[in-house]
Specification:
It is a multi-pass membrane protein. One of its GO terms (biological process) is transmembrane transport. This is ABC transporter. It holds the Pfam family BPD_transp_1. With about 280 residues, the protein is mostly helical. The chain has one domain (about 55-275): Orthogonal Bundle (MetI-like fold), CATH 1.10.3720.10. The protein has 12 helices and no strands. α3 runs antiparallel to α11 (about 225-235), α6 packs parallel to α12 (about 240-275) and α9 (about 190-205) runs antiparallel to α12. It is globular, with a radius of gyration of 23 Å. The two termini are about 35 Å apart.
Length: about 280
Amino acid sequence: MRSRGSIIGGVAAIAATFVVFVIPFLFIILMAFKDKQQSALRDFSWPNGFHLWDNLYEVVKTRNWMMITAFINSSLITVVSVTLLIVLAAMVGFVLARRKTRWNGLIEFLILAGLMIPPAVVPTIWLLQGLKLFGTLHGMILIQVAYNLPFSIILYRAFIATIPRELDEAAVIDGARPLDVFFRIILPLLWPVTVTNIVVQSVGIFNDFTNPLYYLPGNQNATVQLTLYNFQSQFSTAYNLLFTNIMLITIPPLIVFMFFNRQIVAGMTAGAVKG
């Protein structure tokens, strides 16, 4: 009886996943293959012709090749932000897991507060303007690091707590300095959780719409999600171009998830398995 119920639940879960995720993605691809007249019908019909390359060229060249600029900006923000997140979060997580002081409780409370308290947009804009970083990629990178750092710290701290302290002590006895202990002993052991952090944070930052909208004005600073916002206002009736743009900005994160799905699950459960 239980096995039958589990089979029914599994089939229901697969069906729900298909309806929620697969069908909309198939609809996006079909619309990207259509011309303007057929896409205006907004139905699930088969394309009358192969118009994908024409739609891609039209989307890429629009607004002085803004799509290329957006992909460069989004890639730069994502790579630099994720790199800083990995280094800073791993170091903070290592200190919190290894050094027990009276300040640990306060620090952990502030980290949790960073997860629970929503960001204040207007004071952040004032701060960026005071630092001359508003509307710059450098300021956007700092925003992404600040907003995503608490989650990364919690992830690393939980994993480092499962690593035996004897490794640190043996390295110190051999003459290793604190930075040597971290970068040569601890950091290589963090590969499973690091892969998880890279994938999760990369997809989140690359797909971020709200923060670039608030803190990164200007066409020269456009990101991939902001191009969708601009296309929606410019091509509100050209659904073939609108859905081609959606397809362009959806495929990179989808590929990342397809290739690293197993590593994400392994990294999320690695600490629990070791514990």
